[in-house]
Amino acid sequence: MSADCPFCSIASGKATASIVYEDAAIIAFMDLNPANVGHTLVIPKEHWENIYEVPEKVLAEVAAVVKRISGAVKKTVGAGGISILQLNGRAAGQSVMHFHVHVIPRFRGDPISKAIEAMVGGHHGFKKPERRDLDEIAQKIRENL
Ligand SMILES: [Zn+2]
Fold first, then answer.
1. Which of 4, 14, 60, 86 lies in the 20 to 30 Å Cα band around 120?
2. Among 39, 47, 98, 100, the one annotated catalytic
């Protein structure tokens, strides 16, 4: 537990939250600044800062809960889809430094569509690479596995 971590405070019950799910290792609660109605966060109760630190076993437990929460949130708010978002490091936009996964209900044409489509749809201005460029970066990543 980290003394000044807001998510540790929620996990320990010292801070209030609108809790959706809780077990011995995981807790899920409503995001205070939702991107859409039903935006839920899933966290391990133990303090791990990011994807690099969190043990694979804990990550698997989080993933299982994310799956359950996604179905329940989609059904509850009648979403057309769910976006799963997980940020690591301030450069990526992580603001609370306790590993967490966003479960974000999506609706066709909602305001965040353009941002997400730009990120994953190839409309972000990043130069379209040649196959040899992709093979080269794939090789370098394999070397770091
Ligand atoms: Zn924490």
1. 60
2. 100
Angle at 114 between CA 63 and CA 19, to 5 degrees: 35
Mention the CATH class of domain 6-143: alpha beta
- In tens, the pLDDT along 56-75 reads 999 999 999 999 999 999 99
Q: Average pLDDT in the 74-80 region? A: 97
Amino acid at 64: A
Tokens of 31: 């995001």
Delimit the domains of the chain by residue range: 6-143
Residue 100 annotated to the active site: yes
Question: What gap in Å lies between CA 86 and CA 80, rounded to an integer?
Answer: 20
Record the pTM.
0.90
